[in-house]
Model the fold of this input.
Amino acid sequence: MKKDKKQLILKLILSAAGLVAVFFLGKGLSYLRYGGSGDPGEGQEETDGMLPLPKAALTEEELEALFRTAKVNAIAQAGGETKEGEAAPEEKAEGTGETKEEEGESPEGGEIDFAYLKTLNEDIYAWITVPGTVIDYPVLQHPTDDAYYLHHNLDGSYGYPGCIYTESLNAKDFTDPNTVIYGHNMKAGTMFAQLHEFEDRDFFDANREVLVYLPEKTLCYEIFAAYVYDDRHLLYSFDFSDQEVYASYLKSIYDIRDMSANIDKGITVTEEDKIITLVTCMAGEANAEKRLLVQAVLEE
Done:
């Protein structure tokens, strides 16, 4: 009898230990995929609301310089007047003082040479610029690993700040109803950190443009919403190819009653429109399961 009791107790202990191990394994995998919070250890960097990772081979400042040089050289390779390390001058529409933007041209006045950019990284397929912010980066998509650029940099090194990227669930020509673009909320204010500026109503009202450069054309979007959402995976949670689902999703945006949300109800977005959703993390451990979404509709 005593032996049976000991065996029963041993089984209960092993079962409990197994459940604890499964719990922490699941939490660990969730943190790796969607981000968590914590203090960085030695040799690590952190972002607001994201899991600390080892430092990249290059510093964040060096990677930022790499992004800037990449664009300057890409414009120069396309026939612009830009010299390496200098920003190209803006072209002004005669008599207006406004910057001209021709199809396929960057706001600096020269086309972007994507063939050159692909010599830096084959996965670059677009470039995104959000005027009024420092957001001015290549957009990448890994062919097999959707989370690759969450933890890898433009030069292939592992660690922060990663890259601005989309997943293979989205086409690279931005023809999907909703193209979701991810970027880290870096404490230094780089990558997608300045999306948080759109939480301020005055900034939101004054800055509404997003430009996406593709090899064959430039897409112009108008921002219509900026709000805090949960951390669900949008493309897994909603079938945007179903117009009824898409229409219902758009309605849910306009139905948001959160006073901190900025929604321009003067802009009508329907299931016939194409939008982009820019996603980044929120600061603080309490917000680990929240995301900031900034959404813009393609202008025809």
Notes: Residues 2-34 form the longest helix (33 residues).
